[in-house]
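fyi for ur records
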Amino acid sequence: MVRNGLYKRRGGHGGSRLGSGLPTAYWENQGGRKEAAIAKRKRESEAADKAARDKAKRTALWQKVAAKPAAEQQDSGSHTNGEGQQA
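which gave:
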């Protein structure tokens, strides 16, 4: 429906979608689809390995921080035995 002669053509063949998609010879420049998929899996596995190493480092750090000597752990419960409290 056309209202008051203000009809503007939109879409159609091309238009806003013009230039979308992969450029010409994209896969040939990547060395082929198979090689591109292999490279992608390699990048993903390296990233997963790095994330696992970083997580292990963080876990070791927090375990070291959280570890207390046995004497400190025994003294930490003194507030529950009534010492130091006034009636």
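Residues 33-66 form the longest helix (34 residues). thats all i got for now
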